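Page 42, continued from yesterday. The earlier attempt failed because a stray header line got pasted into the input along with the sequence. Redoing it now with the clean sequence only.
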Amino acid sequence: MYDLQTRKHALALLDQGFSQNSVSKQTGISRAAIRSWIVRIEPLEYARGRECPRCDDTPGHPDDPAAYAYLLGLYLGDGCVSASRRGVYSLRIACADAWPGLISACVEAIQITRPANKVCLVQSPGCQYVTCFSKHWPCLFPQHGPGKKHEREISLVAWQQDIVAAHPWEFIRGLIHSDGCRITNWTSRLVRGQTKRYEYPRYFFTNLSADILSLFTSTLDQVGVEWKQPNSKNISVARRASVALMDAHVGPKY
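This time it went through. Structure tokens are written below.
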């Protein structure tokens, strides 16, 4: 006999998209027992996860809009939503192994946004895929669609625009953490016959989608950051006051 908590845990894993075989291996519970709970869960009373804030009769915002704004930036940069089994979708965000703090921040943002769903890390060469299964990712990321993001139109719907307007720095930080960086440039000048080296920091954001670049720059405009676009896929922030603003609210990856 398995206790109530064990059965809840097994069914929660199934709801997250794991197969019966995978759940059996993870928990040590026989597949026969798991199958019996699917077809006859009595006397187990099990509520299958928390409802989606977008699926209510009166749709609202995620409970923590700031965490969602950051996650939205990560998703637009290095994330994807893919259909899985039983109507479940997986959210995957690629985070480089070089930035463990980014991986932790990504895990936290996903867990805050979908607290009833498990977040797991899938190792790939040079990076971790921060992954979470839920039926409601298309509700939370209506930009989801077939093909690559830079090959289709990307725009925010009204409720997302409200969140970004209220939490612009979290959105900018998510975009920088996914597809941006803070670097130190240098130049040399001849001063009184001697060559002197000068260093200065700057931020770069790189994305192939003109729509995502536009979302980034319009949000920079909102917070008073000056920027330039040196080519079709890069945005540069180099003016001292603007870099200071970015340092105060974003900072380098870690």
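Notes: Residues 89 and 134 are 5 Å apart (CA to CA).
Reminder to self: strip header lines before submitting.
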